[in-house]
Amino acid sequence: MSRWPRILVNGLIFLLLVALVAGNGYYYLKYQAAQAIIDELGTMVDAYRLVKERYVQEVADRQLQQGAMEGLVEALEDPYSHYLSPENYEKLKIQVTGTFGGIGVIMTLWEGDIVIVDPPMPGSPAAAAGLQAGDIITSVDGRPLAGLTVDQAAELIRGPVGTEVDLGIRRGEETLEVTLVRDHIPIISVRSQMLEEESGIGYLRISVFNEHTGQEVREALAALEKEGVRGLVLDLRRNPGGILKVAVEVAGLFLPAGEPVLHVRGRDGEEQSITTFDEPLCPHLPMVVLVDGGSASAAEILAGALQDTGRASLVGTRTFGKGSVQTIYPLGDDGAVRLTTALYITAGGHFIDKEGIQPDVTVEYKPEAEGDEQLEAAVEILRESLS
Description:
- The protein is an alpha+beta fold.
- The protein has three domains: 42-75, no CATH class; 99-186, Roll (Pdz3 Domain); 190-386, 2-enoyl-CoA Hydratase, Chain A, domain 1, CATH 3.90.226.
- Helix content is 35%, strand content 26%.
- The chain has ten helices and 19 strands.
- The protein has helices spanning 3-40, 42-54, 61-74, 86-97, 125-128, 150-157, 213-226, 244-251, 298-308, 373-386; strands spanning 82-84, 99-102, 107-110, 113-116, 136-140, 143-144, 164-171, 174-181, 183-186, 190-196, 201-206, 231-235, 260-266, 271-275, 287-291, 313-316, 324-330, 336-346, 361-362.
- Strands 3, 4, 5, 6, 7 and 8 form a six-stranded antiparallel β-sheet that branches.
- A hairpin with a 2-residue loop joins strand 3 and strand 4.
- The longest helix is centred in the first third of the chain and has 38 residues, at 3-40.
């Protein structure tokens, strides 16, 4: 063999040896990482085996596995992170798309209670049963709701269409027991009306952010414009949040394209800015936003963006302070894990989580008052700006 072919062959052999060593090194490091995880879980495996072999009754593998996953996430002591069984994961997917088997109410967490936000949806089981906005749901099928999140309470209430669910209700000093039959519930997240035709003040209420909310807001704004709206009260009170990208979409109806709506800070400390992406539908419409302690998550993002950019004033009371991002990771058992993976920061750089947003004008809610003093304050601000 001549000199150059020999050099070429030797070079190729050398490169193959380097690749083989590097590959083995990679797989060896992967093996070490896997072995470290196995070593860390050794005690858990021992406990699993003891329960399987020594517990007085046989226990299904699935029950033990799901219980272990629930306990793993609950150990984080984060009310927004939890394991979703296959059944509950399916219910969550149905809820997000905007139709499910339920009773026709939107709920929020208010001072530790699960409270019905708005009047029940027309024609729903809740409407037929006479449930009202402000009713407190204390139990579902005999299970107390104290200490549960809105999501956990909703999981108990939802179920197959045609099945019954028993609710404990507190209305002022009165307690009620109500049995409802679940039905298909299309979630209508937006309602609107003209408050004052003479001054042109309109009202737009968003009760939750689901996949249909953006389009519903567009349609509501178009209808109000036909009626001559000149100023808008945007009501986000008792709105528990929903889909973040939909809140950004709604913000884009009022803010210029490319305007920061929020920043997201992850585990590594890096921040990502999320901006509007379309030309606004109502860039100059005077606005006042109503918020309270039930305004949370995506509702706080929208309110904070409108406040920080100077696009609108906020009226009401400090918001809930739920400023964390949850990511859902599907699992092999058709369930999922929902984990807090980042924190929200408003467009102006303010942390929301556990802090909330302070309104520009504080007006306390007084249930004993004849009218809605917060709404009246917002209308008065708009009257002055329009005069």
